[in-house]
Amino acid sequence: MWWGGRGQSFNIAPQKAEPDVGSVRRTGTLEPRSCQLGSHLASGCLPGEQILAWAPGVRKGLEPELSGTLICTNLRVTFQPCGWQRRTLIHVSGLSRVQLLRPGSPLKFIPEEILIHGRDFRLLRVAFEAGGLEPQAFQVTSAIVQARAQSSQAQQYAGISLSKAGQSSGSRKPPIPLLETSEDWETERKKQGARGWRVSTVNERFDVATSLPRYFWVPKRTLDSEVRRAFGHFHQGRGPRLSWHHPGGSDLLRCGGFYTASDPNKEHIRAVESMLQAGHSDVVLVDTADELPSLTDVQLAHLKLRALCLPDSSAAEEKWLSALEGTRWLDYVRSCLRKASDISVLVTSRVRSVVLQERGDRDFNGLLSSLVQLLSAPEARTLLGFQSLVQREWVAAGHPFLTRLGVTGASEEAPVFLLFLDCVWQLLHQFPAEFEFSEFFLLALHDSARVPDTLTFLRDTPWERGKQSGQFNSYTQIYTPGYSQPPAGNSVNLQLSVWDWDLRYSSEQILQFHNPGYDPEHCPDSWLPRQQPSFMVPGPPSSVWLFSRGALTPLNQLCPWRDSPSVLAVSSRWLPRPAISSESLADQEWGLPSHWGACPLPPGLLLPGYLGPQIRLWRRCYLRGRPEVQKGLSAPTISGLQDELSHLQELLRRWTPRVSPEDHSKKRDPNTILSQSH
């Protein structure tokens, strides 16, 4: 399995900047070990996948070493141990040292060993049988290098379509709603109990914004004509819309930055204010970019983290922790969790409208909105609930996966989604009984973000995803400046979803997606009745606040186009900052001011720790290239934990010296201890 080092696969996909190179070297001769390439291998290929070359070999770096087959296809490089029939996809960035083989470069000698360093922090080391003298060793190594050279931009948009046989057998129902139809959005709205909201079809043909989904939630009393006018005054047309309705009555919204160069009339301003207020008298605008790292910071921290965690890192062992701190990655995780905790307090403490505002509305808005729902809604912590959350707040909301993960080669690369998964792992580590999914599900999702087998993470916008899948081929092409366009070509009728785990993982692997420590009593039905928001209190009448740098600052108005200049029209850094109390925002919100009233901590709300050692390194993810570090990590299942416990007990019995009862009593006798000390 991918988390245990068996049956791993390394994808071939175009990359950017980093040394996408191969490494082969001469080593000592190995005893030949035979492993036939059975017919089950070809049958285990993904739809549209073709085997280019294969060679028998031995997987090194494991105890015991595994005999198997190294296989290169048009989509991936995979090592399949003898007797294993598991399919797992993991991305690779390239190979390194001793001889560097760049994509397209010729192989000038017979390889005896090949090393593959993956961008997901893994290391695949395979020694070929017969010292590489068999022709398959040369063929598969050459195929790996050439396949990477042939990876073009067109492959970025290819994906893997279902075969004709699969299409003719009927449409496959996705495990969760993909939010591609108005019915999906209406079902989700009813599930959240958002009675004051409706599904808008104003962007059904993507003529408002190609980065927005075709459907989204707007206030019930707002007409689509007003929505169209209001969205035109936000950056890239991404106006305010509902992300999540709290069962106590609050609403969490997200939107882009104000387009201050526009000149709206009074009706347009009234429409914008109405959508921001969402029927509430208390409105809090959250400056998302404040206190969080920039995209450049995230990318630089991730590159440093990867360089540090690779097996050939140059960092000295005694300075490793200092080098880890120098990457700033854990600092950025801490900042995200701290801000998400504050926003969750704002949402749950009073009935209000909380608006997340980011200039592009496609990166940290999705991260914070997702974390707030995980902290506040137990249903989001279930396996299906979390998948629906990612589909809604990241995929449907237009997060530019293709650009941020560096597939397009653009300069805006920054793994914001991977930063979010690290934050989720921190929550899972601090509250292990609150989450139905396990760490291995997060690892599978982490690796799937770089796998080009579905359209889920291979597009920057919902328009591109729908266009490629043939979802709306009859629609007129609408172009929004600043967004990439997929190349022309034949689109397929049906595409796989990343949530179709059973097409890529065995039933045993999927079983380990479930957290054995999850407490069934934390199910959504036992949480909070939607009709009893008694723990929440209304805010003061007609109050508008800006939340920035951990403090609430009162505002005179919502929009920057009134007679007096608005603080939202410029950077919030010039604002005078009130002294931040040593108390947490939760203490301030539930205790001050007195006329707002006080209320206990809402049930179901998680407030994580983010100080010092409370934020940890995700070792099972980032140190996967170091098998010696993986030893001692918790087992994935109950039976695995039992086996590990039995093994530890056996070791304890071996290492404990045999002491007679008399000797044991003497050691316990204080007089004996005193006499020995004299």
Question: What's the story with the biggest beta sheet?
Answer: 9 strands, mixed
Task: Classify the fold: give the CATH topology of one domain.
Answer: PH-domain like
The share of residues in helices is 25-40%
Report the strand count: 19
Spans of at least 5 consecutive residues whose pLDDT stays below 50 are 1-38, 85-99, 152-170, 473-494, 526-537, 563-583, 591-599, 664-678
User: Cα-atom Rg, whole angstroms?
Assistant: 28 Å
Name given to the CATH homologous superfamily of one domain = Pleckstrin-homology domain (PH domain)/Phosphotyrosine-binding domain (PTB)
| Multimeric state | single chain
What overall geometry do the principal axes of the alpha carbons give?
globular
* Count of individual helical segments: 23
Percentage of residues in DSSP E strands: 5-15%
Give the class from helix and strand content and strand pairing: alpha/beta
User: What top-tier CATH class of one domain fits best?
Assistant: Mainly Beta
Pfam families: 3-PAP, Myotub-related
InterPro entries: MTMR12-like_C, Myotubularin, Myotubularin-like_Pase_dom, Prot-tyrosine_phosphatase-like
Family: Belongs to the protein-tyrosine phosphatase family. Non-receptor class myotubularin subfamily.
Protein name: Myotubularin related protein 11
